[in-house]
Amino acid sequence: NNLCFHHIKNINDPTTVALIKTLEPDLIFVFGWSQIISKEVLDLPRLGCIGTHPALLPRNRGRHPLVWALVEGLEETGLTFFYLDEGVDSGDILWQQPCPITFEDDAESLYEKIKGLATKGINEFLPLLATGSSARHSQDHSQASYWRKRGEKDGEIDWASQTMTNYNLIRALTHPYIGAHSFLDGRLIKIWKSTPLQDNRENEAEGYGPGTVVKIGGSGFDIVTGDGVISVSDYEFTKGGTLKVGSILGSRG
Fold it and tell me: What is the pTM of this model?
């Protein structure tokens, strides 16, 4: 599209700020940018800086909102376009729409839903911004909640947890993310896809503790959880390893 492209390392570096000034932007969109943007940059565009957050602000501000929505088993999330300010996801709302989360959704399918909403939103509000007729609503900060930053330990499966807890963690961290993980004799195993088998507790998990592999079949295996059995259909060892009936997955030790 013959658009100018500039690769920068720091949005707040004086040379970057000078570059943006020369462009004399009416509007700046900020998508997937991990650096805090200074007030100097925020004040440059005539119409402001527009950010996006895959949640229904003011609820669920902060880090990894798409992942957290699946981990917590939420039935609805959404997408918000908002004016960036010096706070954390606290600026005025430009456009917002909810998005249902089905039982079958995982990180990949939910990500695609959010992308679809983003396209819809931009097509709706960009013409309004151009004519100065777009809506702008302040957030009710008393209703705000925050997701914390997730770390590596948050991705480790606790097989003693309930089946749905494990299912939600696995689907939240599947592609395009890093995958939920466990260990077999110190070897890391990534778990990409699973299906709850909560009704099979009596005939398949009898006498076995959480984390025990009770069935090998096809491309996956069944493993005991804290309240049932979950079937893993997509997994991989990062440095080799072999599962068999009776193998016990758990922490690195």
Answer: 0.91
